[in-house]
Amino acid sequence: MKKFHFLLILISQLTFAQFTNFNTVKEVRVKNKGVVVSAHPLASEAGATILKMGGNAYDAIVATQYALTVVYPQAGNIGGGGFLVGVKNNGEKFTLDYRETAPEKASRDMYLDKKGNANTDLSQNGRLAVGIPGSVAGFYATLKHCNLPMNQLIQPAIDLAEQGFAITEREANLLNSLRDEFLKHNISKTAFVKNEKWKAGDLLVQKELAETLKRIQKDGMKGFYEGKTAELIVAEMKRGNGIISLKDLKNYKVAERKPMKFDYKGHEIVTMPLPSSGGIILAQMLKMSSFENIEKYQHNSAKAVQIMIEAERRAFADRAEYMGDPAFINDKTAMLISDDYLKNRWKSYSPTQATRSGDVGKIINPAKESTETTHISVVDKAGNAAAVTTTLNGLYGSKVVVSGAGFFLNNEMDDFSIKPGVPNMFGAVGGEANKIEPGKRMLSSMTPTIVLKKGKPYIIVGTPGGTTIPTSVYQSIVNTIDFKLSPNMAVNAPKFHHQWLPESVSVEKNFPETTISDLEKMNYKIERISQIGRTEMIVIDEKGNIIGVADGRGDDSVAVEAP
Catalytic residues per the record (predicted)? Predict the structure, then answer.
């Protein structure tokens, strides 16, 4: 009876959503209720509905991720992977690493031509670009922290895929802009291409994806990593030059890792360890900027921004040299975040001029940046918190849809260093530590983070954006703790980004012109770009108010557990 009632609720909600505009909510302030923030209103509502049905934060995280597979196909996924950071109300802290891994047939030089030149088209587009998906295994690894069974958590996504939903103008434009790419990389017809152009309000119905989700609902992990779905993935590989095998899929394992924890001005930061570079970079940037007592300066002033840029520069130089899958390298995390190391690293900082990137690492001309990931922040009324960032890597991943299964595959192999010194699609340069090896997890910038105050969740934050992820999380934390901005301003204030290479600093178009002018006088090269990331943040204040903020840069939305 309970399940039947649950299905009626979802069907009524989603049928309504097919024919009307979504109820997009950018900010809420509540008490004693669960809150979900994600990239799409229907996904957030799916998570909030699960909370109402007795689920906790981790149930909501799983349901929201499945829903994003349907309503946010450019990044929400079962064909990719991600990281989860959790803090329970009993003080337990944990992380799950369901990052993709390199197939058994992968090799260090697999993207080099006969002359030894890197072919980034092969690592970014088509079947050879695909790493072994980890998301579904990650959802099942989360299940031991949940209250509800998986067949209930996946049902909202099945309903969304089977019945369809009305797409927004932004989604229509994306599908139209990638139409030629979808046709190029897919032999079979997909749900994402039609004869005429997509427009706002059109229904996106994904029957094949619904059947894939039903197989997972019925058979569990085996419904994805074995049986029909696995066979469809391998058949898709054989249509091109893909190398993932049935054995690769069956042998995929989630890594449960010890959370990375460090103090920042009396707050405990809980974030992701390697193979996320984000946690280390975040620790380095926060600690280095604290050497200059950044809280003395005004938000987005030239002085504050310059300190933060230089912290970013040094952290990203270390990313290139030291970071990779900890199972394959000598993990130097303890050294990289130590005060002694960072104080020595900071000695070259000058308050009056830009540091040359060549002074902190070897200069290589990087590729143009491109980004697409997605983040979910959740807290339940019992005080359990979760931050999850997942990705297909590029926009719609490899552009390949598994024929008969209806979902996009990732292009995460590009996150390896395909040739030491050659930048990936986000401009991030890698070396030996991140070279391609079978079974290895590629380095990531994803930085799901929970900040604790007096031992309880205070800030739950994360964002998409490739290499801009750790710098956006960094700015969100500094905006809140040091500059005392409201949660809304901390998320939506103009952002900037620097990553060592290229030498330039990216700023959003509405960034203060006076700050830009002052930075240029100190020899900073400024590049104006349309937007940086889409941050999803929850702040729990000392009075117990839960403030959820969805980034104004997209269709992102907050949902609250119904009474």
Answer: 373
Question: Which runs of consecutive H residues, i.e. helices, occur in 125-253?
Answer: 135-142, 150-153, 155-163, 169-177, 179-185, 207-219, 222-225, 227-238, 246-250
DSSP codes of every residue in 284-321: HHHHHHHTTTGGGSPTT-HHHHHHHHHHHHHHHHHHHH
Separation of alpha carbons 438 and 429, rounded Å: 20
Task: Read off the pLDDT of each residue in 85-100 and give the average, rounded to a whole number.
Answer: 98
Any bridge partners for residue 547, and if so which?
29, 539
Give CA separation, 448 vs 282, 385, 442, 470, in Å: 11, 11, 17, 9
Indicate the pairing of strand 27-30 with strand 267-271: unpaired
Catalytic residue set: 373
Please tell me whether 99 is known to bind a ligand. yes
Show the domain range for 430.
Answer: 42-78+97-253+386-440
Asked whether residue 363 carries a pLDDT value surpassing 60, the answer given is no
Query: Distance between CA 60 and CA 71 in Å, rounded?
Result: 16
Residues 422 and 480 grouped into a single domain: no
For residues 1 and 6, give the distance between their C-alpha atoms in angstroms, rounded to a whole number: 9
What percentage of the chain carries pLDDT values higher than 70? 92
3-state secondary structure 451-462: EEECCEEEEEEE
**466 annotated ligand-binding residue:** yes
The model's pTM is: 0.94
Q: Which of 440, 458, 484 is the C-terminal boundary of a domain?
A: 440
Q: Is 190:401 a contact under the CB 8 Å cutoff?
A: yes
Ligand-binding site membership of 393 (annotated): yes
